[in-house]
Structures are given as C-alpha cells and as structure tokens.
Specification:
about 150 residues; mainly alpha
C-alpha cells in the first residue's frame, strides 16, 4: 500500500509511484490510479491540440473579417499557433489521427468561432470551416476579404 493518498496530494503520490517503479517495488504500486493518469496524459495532449487549433482558427477568422485590425500581433499569434500545432504533431504523431475525425474538426471550429465572437463582437462567421487543413497550416495562407477563401 502507498503512503501518500492519490486523492490527498496527486503530486506527492506521483513522485512516490515513480520512486516505487524505479526501485522495482511493483507490488506497492497504485496500478488503478497509474492507469488513470496515463490515460489522462493522452486526453491532455488531445485537448492541447484542439485548443491550439481553435485559437488559430479564431485568429484566421479575425484576420478575414476584421481587415482593419490586422497587425503584427495577430500575425505573430497565427504563426505561433501553426508552429506549436506542428510541434505537437511531431512530438505526438498519433494525434494526426484526430485530424481525420470530422467530430474533432466540428469541436475545434465551434471553439474557434466562439473565441472570435467573444473577441470581435461579430456573429457573421460561417457555420462550417471554409478552409482545409493544408490551407490553415500554410505559412503563406492569409484569408482575405476580397477573394474566395
């Protein structure tokens, strides 16, 4: 049995579990909670990717629908999100499977639209994402108001 309760202090519990693993004291491990934590790591990585994509989509929408406010700050945010998304996919290639799920895109799009509405006060955004992944991630893609995206 472990000496630190998972429910009481998860950080101390994790440190103790790591020490038990390293010392080979496998019979003392809190297997059920370890399994839960491992699953949560995957969920956290998936949330991070979706959140980054939502921020990117929101800024692309702002870029498209508020051309008078375009500036270096938005450009930096768009470039940063593209870079971090690519890093996430490089570091965790299994996340690429999520990009093929329509439900994932619907959630990312809806979150991006919600962010754009909150930040702009506009409610004119398309119901569905008008861009494909390759456009969204293309460093040369900047949606404009004078051409079809």
């Amino acid at each position: 049995m472990t000496t630190v309760a998972y429910e009481f202090d998860v950080i101390a519990w994790a440190q103790e579990q790591a020490a038990l693993l390293r010392s080979g004291q496998f019979s003392l491990l809190d297997i059920e909670h370890i399994a839960d934590e491992i699953e949560d790591v995957g969920k956290s990585e998936k949330r991070e990717l979706k959140n980054r994509m939502a921020v990117l989509l929101a800024h692309l929408l702002k870029w498209r629908y508020q051309p008078e406010y375009r500036g270096n700050s938005w450009r930096r945010t768009i470039n940063l999100q593209r870079s971090v998304i690519l890093d996430c996919l490089d570091e965790t290639p299994s996340l690429k499977a999520d990009l093929k799920l329509s439900g994932w895109w619907v959630r990312a799009w809806n979150e991006g639209v919600a962010i754009a509405i909150k930040e702009t006060g506009l409610d004119v955004f398309p119901e569905f994402c008008p861009w494909i992944y390759d456009q969204i991630m293309d460093a040369d893609f900047w949606p404009s108001d004078d051409v079809q995206d």
